[in-house]
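[Discussion] Sanity-checking designs against the backbone

I'm trying to build intuition for which residues belong where. Below is a structure token string of 340 positions. I'd appreciate it if someone posts a full sequence so I can compare it with mine line by line.
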């Protein structure tokens, strides 16, 4: 394992039990947690994007702010739902955020998961062409984004522009060199992992995927990663790909940890169904004393296959506690798993 970061869903709720009670709390605390994680030595700060929800809906202002406040840590998403995105506008926003961060953006994108409203992308102005599914639309938006991020001109300039143009066809600006190689696809199936590899995207695999064999989650996820790497090799890309997996992992090192997570009963995989009745498998959580965690995680085949581990954090417990959660893993667990 080369890198460890955190993944926050940015939940907020106006409840006295929550330390994150407003959108302002969620955004500002996300920045503070990224700064704290960098100080602790973590490698990445990643954020989940959901629309029509009390979560983090608009990622690029947040990513730019984190980029301005930090110096080393990778900054990313896991994931942005491409059904909702204008790929050219997205390329501009991503380019700007990446430049502010000094080339540290790691942009995770995907077809998305079931949302809070029915066909929410329609409210964003998108309609499906005849014969196209919403998953097809997400993949089409992705292909356009990847093409634009190559940085080559495609738009014919106005012969009488307001400002002088460079010669030739024009591209969207600002353009950030290297960002195209830092796009990740959140794959829910083996097939989409192979598709992502063919297009030269890195792979993000979360705590759920389509149940394609009935085997344990970590075994299926490891197989997905191997399929991705084989497809990458077949595509003959010039660089080596990156692969991340997400996990809920809590080291119980004090009484507060044990009070929050000591009775954790999600230590087995579970089966559920996504919005289109696709059978899905949800990976277990881990909560134990550090020495036990090391033994449990050493048996996780997908963690062994990946180069990056994203720790999902309970952001509504506040910045200080989540910094403690990250520090406990980095200090007491990660070194035994080969981190650094």
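Best answer:
Here's mine. Compare freely.
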């Amino acid at each position: 394992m080369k890198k460890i970061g955190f993944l926050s869903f940015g939940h907020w709720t106006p409840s006295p039990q929550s330390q994150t009670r407003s959108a302002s709390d969620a955004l500002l605390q996300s920045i503070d947690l990224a700064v704290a994680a960098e100080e602790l030595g973590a490698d990445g700060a990643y954020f989940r994007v959901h629309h029509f929800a009390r979560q983090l809906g608009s990622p690029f202002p947040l990513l730019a702010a984190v980029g301005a406040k930090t110096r080393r840590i990778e900054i990313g998403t896991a994931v942005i739902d491409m059904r909702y995105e204008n790929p050219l506008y997205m390329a501009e926003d991503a380019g700007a955020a990446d430049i502010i961060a000094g080339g540290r953006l790691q942009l995770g994108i995907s077809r998305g998961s079931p949302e809070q409203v029915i066909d929410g992308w329609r409210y964003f102005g998108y309609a499906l062409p005849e014969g196209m599914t919403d998953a097809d639309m997400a993949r089409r938006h992705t292909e356009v984004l990847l093409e634009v991020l190559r940085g080559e001109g495609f738009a014919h300039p106005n012969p009488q522009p307001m400002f002088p143009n460079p010669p030739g066809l024009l591209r969207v600006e600002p353009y950030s060199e290297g960002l195209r190689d830092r796009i990740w696809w959140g794959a829910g199936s083996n097939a989409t992992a192979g598709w992502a590899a063919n297009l030269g995207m890195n792979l993000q695999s979360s705590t759920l995927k389509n149940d394609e064999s009935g085997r344990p989650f970590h075994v299926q996820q490891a197989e997905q990663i191997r399929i991705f790497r084989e497809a990458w090799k077949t595509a003959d890309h010039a660089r080596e790909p990156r692969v991340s997996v997400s996990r809920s992992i809590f080291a119980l090192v004090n009484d507060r940890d044990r009070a929050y997570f000591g009775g954790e009963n999600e230590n087995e995989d579970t089966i559920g169904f996504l919005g289109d009745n696709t059978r899905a498998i949800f990976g277990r959580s881990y909560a134990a004393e550090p020495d036990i965690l090391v033994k449990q995680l050493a048996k996780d085949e997908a963690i062994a296959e990946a180069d990056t581990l994203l720790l999902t954090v309970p952001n509504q417990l506040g910045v200080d506690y989540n910094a403690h959660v990250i520090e406990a893993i980095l200090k007491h667990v990660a070194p035994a798993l080969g981190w650094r």
